[in-house]
Amino acid sequence: MPFTIFNKKKGKFVKKSKIFDNKNFLNFTLIILIFFVFSQEFHVFKNTYDLITKNYYNRATKAYDKTFFSGYCEGSSHGYLFYIKNRYSEKFGENKIPKIINNFNEKNEYWVFSNVNAKINNQQIIILNKIEDIDLDNYHIIDNNNNKCFFVEKK
């Protein structure tokens, strides 16, 4: 709502409007409140901090650790696959990725290696959720996680 004040230089009354009248102030406050509620609900500040300070491997491993069908070395074992990809990528060779044997489900998670045109190397095998009847005598064990997940290479 405009209000009237006396301007000494001009010697007359001038109408001025308030920058924040009650209606504008209420709208502004409501917008700010909604912004902070959504920021809190979607963890905007924490996610932004994680995006800036953590690398892709750490963020992906943490994201898949919390899902019910995955984990580090249980379920689909995405965390272990990310670990193998990050740690042993120089062993895979040119445009090749290791064969994946997953005893949790029939899906093989080759998408973790981000190379859709790669050929599967049958000499290197990632065994997830090992069952008792798999014989590892003919393999050189490169990585072992609690005798449950393995990265092996044929001798």
Overview features:
27% strand, 6 strands, two-stranded antiparallel sheet, 2 domains, four-stranded mixed β-sheet, 33% helix
Verbal overview:
The protein is of the alpha+beta class. It folds into two domains: 2-51, no CATH class; 57-154, no CATH class. It is built from four helices and six strands; from the N terminus they run ββααααββββ. A hairpin with a 4-residue loop joins strand 1 and strand 2 (12-17). Helix 3 (56-65) packs antiparallel against helix 4. The chain is elongated and about 100 Å long.
Write a concise synopsis of the structure shown.
By secondary structure, the chain is of the alpha+beta class. The protein has helices at 22-41, 44-53, 56-65, 78-88, and strands spanning 2-7, 12-17, 96-102, 119-128, 139-145, 149-154. β1 (2-7) and β2 (12-17) form a beta hairpin.
Write the layout of secondary structure elements.
Layout: E1 2-7, E2 12-17, H1 22-41, H2 44-53, H3 56-65, H4 78-88, E3 96-102, E4 119-128, E5 139-145, E6 149-154
Parallel strand pairs: 3-4
Antiparallel strand pairs: 1-2, 4-6, 5-6
Helix pairs in contact: 3-4
Strand content: 25-35%
Helix-strand topology string: EEHHHHEEEE
Count of runs of 4 or more consecutive helical residues:
4
Largest sheet: 4 strands, mixed
Detail the poorly predicted runs: none
Alpha carbon gyration radius: 30 Å
Basic shape = elongated
State the secondary-structure class: alpha+beta
**Lateral strand order in the biggest sheet:** 3-4-6-5
The level of helicity is: 25-40%
Distance between the termini: 86 Å
Number of strands: 6
Count of discrete structural domains: 2
Mean pLDDT: 80
